[in-house]
Known about the structure:
CATH topology of the largest domain: Rossmann fold
Strand order of the largest sheet: 1-2-3-5-4-6-7-10-11
CATH architecture of the largest domain: 3-Layer(aba) Sandwich
CATH superfamily of the largest domain: Alpha/Beta hydrolase fold, catalytic domain
Number of domains: 2
Distance between the termini: 31 Å
CATH class of the largest domain: Alpha Beta
Order of helices and strands: HEEEEHEHEHEHEHHHEHHHEHHEHH
Strand content: 5-15%
Helix content: 25-40%
Largest sheet: 9 strands, mixed
Oligomer: single chain
Radius of gyration: 20 Å
Structural class: alpha/beta
Amino acid sequence: MSRPKKRSNQGSNAMRDTTLSRRDMLWAGGALTVGVALAQPLKAAAAEPDWAGSEPTSWVDSATSAVTHRMIETNGIRLHVAEQGEGPLIILCHGFPECWYSWRHQLPALAKAGFRAVAPDLRGYGRSDRPEEVEKYTVLHDIGDIVGLVDALGAEQAVIAGHDIGATVAWQAALLRPDRFRGVIALGPPFRPRAFGGGSAPPTTLMPRNENAVFYQLYFQTPEAETALGRDIRRMLRSQFFSLSGDRPRSAGGGFPAGMVPRKGALLTDPTSLPPWITETDIDVYVAEFNRSGFRGPLNWWRNIDRSWELMAAFDGAAVIVPALYIVGDRDMLVAVFQQAIAKQSTLVPKLRPAMMLAGCGHWTQQERAPEVSAAMIDFLRSL
Length: 384
């Protein structure tokens, strides 16, 4: 696979030496591992995969009868996708701990507006395949999955949208493949160079920790996190959706202020009732999906933070050149965590619209403020 050409003002330092630098070697390793992220579409595998015939390839859920579900082969795995509508394609990438269902409000809204909305379960989640190897969950793997998905859907281009980790995937997909993604919509995380921030040191070495608390991205890498999250999935999800929402009283416990997870004491807050934007029936869907997938695959994303950062070294300082929309709740903990990155992201995203800050909204942007988010997305899509 050939390495894509860089713009003349980007990545020049990596090419100064005539010998292969560590950056070049890392890029080559990443390219060989997930070539579909940067190369032409992969051909179908010659051998029939182990999963062939084990599950239906398409179906309609009675609870969401307008949404069609399919299993699609891409980048060497199968992704489960939910889709609705016809027209220009938009891919919706969910966050953690979520699945395609987090876009349940946007699917019909986008379809009604004349777009083809497709929400996959990212690798490791829901019905999608869950590779065993930890190293198969880098940001390049996810980008490769989405590029292959666009191919499998028969589209030349798509707009990519993402929330939480899905936003990181969306930003980096738009950075690497502006030929395939003609616009990007990010909910929560701002654009950061090399997926997790630029700099000369691995991201995890810079993450805060003290004797009382540890940064949430470090916590999610531990076996203890996997055990704790899976112990009582319903209680965990109810706690997360409440504690990180804009509906949590400021005086209440939980919420991971500044992204810090306490080392001791109660990690979860079990609310007596849910916020008005999510129901127990919605929780049922999420519980079923995580009972199916477990948390090893989803948490492997965090276990690859440094590896993903290394693999993106050749693109440090590169700009996202496609039109972009950024939406975040003013009570999302990520506003405090990534305050500096939010303030300066426009320097590397020259076609970024003014940031849309949703008053009183927490972390679960497209669920907490479904009408506003859907309307903003549709307005952005129509402007392209």
